[in-house]
Specification:
mainly beta; four-stranded antiparallel sheet; 30 strands; about 400 residues; about 40% strand
Length: about 400
C-alpha cells in the first residue's frame, strides 16, 4: 500500500521539502526573488516552518540606553522595517534572567545569529555566555585559565560561527601582554581552549575599538601601528595573512582611521576616513576626486573599498561619500563623532550613527540616498547587528 504523497509545488513538480532544501543553499537575494515566481512559491517561502531553514538577512540592531546611571549594552531593538515593527526576539533576553550572573553580562557582538555576552569580571569559572535568542538556547563558556594577572592582559574577543559549514562555534581571544602575544581559541566541539603564540610585527597591534569581521572562513582583524593593516586569522588561531590597506590613487600616503571591516554579498569590505594632519601646511590643498566626480578635501570623505582578490590582496575603491552628504557637516567638525556600525550583508547599504545628535542613518551606495532610521536616547550603549538563525543547535545545551 502506497504511503501518503508529500505536498508538491504545482509549478516545479517537486515536493515542497525538496524545494526548501534547494533554496536553503542559496543566498538571500535569489530566495527573495523566488517569491515573485507565483503565489504558491511566495506562500512556500513565507511559511513559518520553512522560514527556519532558509537564509536570513539583517533584521536590525540590539542596543542599550542609560539606566540607573549605567550604560546598558542591550534591552532595546531597532527594526529596519521601522520603529513600529515588533522586534524578532525579546531584546531583554528573558530566558537568561534566571542566571544569577545576568546583571553582570554585557552584549559584546553577534555572528550569524548567535550572540556573545562577556561576563564581568572575566574569570576561569565564567568568561562568556553564547546564546541564540531565536531559539532561547544558551551555553556558558569558561574563561581561559592563566596564572597571569588579569590586569596585565589586554584582551580582544570575537565570536565565530558559520552554520553553512558547521554547527560548532568558536570564541577567539587575542591577548596582548608585556612579554608575548597569544591567541586563545575555545571550540564548542571539544569544550576546551587551545593556545598559541602569534606575532604580526612589533609595530602592529589591535586598537581598542578594532574593526573585525568573520567572512569566508576567516576572521579579519584591523591592526594599527606604523601603518594600518588587516590580519586574516583562521578558526584555529593561525595568522594566515597580513593585508595592507589601500589608499586613493591621487593622494600620497595619509594617516587613516579604520571605521569598519565587514562582509557584504560574499566579499570583504573595508571602510575608513583620513585623519587631518594638523601640522601640515598643505592640508587645505590635499584633494581627491569623489566617487561622483566632485573634488573634495581628502579629509572630508568616507572611503569604501572591496577586496577583489584575497590571494593578490587587490582592493578596488567601491565608493566614496562626503561627510557633508552623510551628516551635514565636514570631517573637521566631526572629529570622530560618528561610528560605522554595519554594512548590509546582502545589499549596498551602510549604517552609521552620529554620536552628537544620536541619529542612526542608512546610506545607499547605489541611489546615494541617506535615510534617518531612528534617534537613540541619551547614553545609548553598544549597537549590535542581528541576523536571525532559527534552527536549534546541540552546542547550546540549555533552554528554558
Amino acid at each position: 500500500m502506497a504511503g501518503p504523497n508529500p505536498k508538491r509545488s504545482t509549478e516545479a513538480g517537486l515536493p515542497d521539502d525538496a524545494i526548501v532544501e534547494i533554496l536553503s543553499r542559496l543566498p538571500v537575494k535569489p530566495v527573495r526573488r523566488a517569491k515573485c515566481v507565483s503565489k504558491a512559491w511566495c506562500d512556500l517561502i513565507d511559511d513559518p516552518l520553512h522560514r527556519k531553514k532558509l537564509p536570513q538577512t539583517l533584521e536590525g540592531f540590539f542596543f542599550g540606553e542609560r539606566e540607573r546611571g549605567e550604560r546598558q549594552s542591550f534591552g532595546r531593538f531597532i527594526h529596519l522595517l521601522g520603529t513600529s515593527a515588533a522586534p524578532p526576539v525579546d531584546p531583554s533576553f528573558p530566558f537568561l534572567k534566571e542566571l544569577p550572573v545576568f546583571d553582570k553580562l554585557h552584549l559584546s557582538e553577534s555572528c550569524n545569529g548567535l550572540l556573545l555576552f562577556v561576563h564581568d569580571p572575566y574569570s576561569d569559572a565564567l568568561g562568556y555566555i553564547v546564546c541564540n535568542p531565536a531559539t532561547e538556547q544558551w551555553v556558558a563558556v569558561p574563561g581561559y585559565r592563566t596564572s597571569v594577572k588579569r590586569d596585565d592582559i589586554w584582551r580582544h574577543t570575537n565570536l565565530v560561527f558559520d552554520p553553512v559549514v558547521s554547527s560548532h562555534f568558536h570564541v577567539v581571544e587575542f591577548w596582548e601582554m608585556t612579554e608575548e602575544r597569544v591567541v586563545n581559541v575555545y571550540s564548542s566541539e571539544t569544550g576546551v581552549w587551545s593556545r598559541r603564540v602569534f606575532d604580526w610585527g612589533d609595530d602592529l597591534f589591535i586598537p581598542l575599538f578594532a574593526p573585525t569581521a568573520f567572512a569566508n572562513g576567516l576572521l579579519y582583524v584591523g591592526l594599527t601601528g606604523g601603518e594600518e593593516r588587516i590580519a586574516a586569522v583562521d578558526v584555529g588561531g593561525n595568522v594566515r595573512k597580513i593585508i595592507p590597506v589601500p589608499f586613493p590613487d591621487d593622494v600620497d600616503y595619509v594617516d587613516i582611521r579604520s571605521d569598519y571591516v565587514g562582509s557584504s554579498q560574499g566579499r570583504l569590505h573595508f571602510i575608513y576616513h583620513v585623519l587631518p594632519d594638523y601640522h601640515a601646511d598643505d592640508v587645505p590643498a590635499k584633494k581627491t576626486t569623489g566617487f561622483h566626480g566632485t573634488e573634495w578635501g581628502v579629509y572630508e570623505l568616507l572611503f569604501i573599498w572591496v577586496l577583489e582578490d584575497y590571494d593578490t590582496q587587490q582592493w578596488v575603491l567601491k565608493h566614496t561619500v562626503s561627510f557633508l552628504e552623510l551628516f551635514g557637516e565636514t570631517s573637521c567638525e566631526l572629529k570622530g563623532r560618528f561610528e560605522v556600525i554595519a554594512i548590509h550583508p546582502d545589499s549596498d547599504l551602510v549604517y552609521a550613527v552620529h554620536c552628537g545628535n544620536r541619529k542612526l542613518i542608512s546610506y545607499d551606495m547605489n541611489s546615494q540616498e541617506v535615510c534617518d532610521i531612528c534617534t537613540f536616547g541619551d547614553g545609548f550603549g553598544t549597537i549590535t547587528p542581528y541576523v536571525p538563525y532559527f534552527l536549534e543547535l546541540s552546542e547550546l545545551q540549555n533552554k528554558n
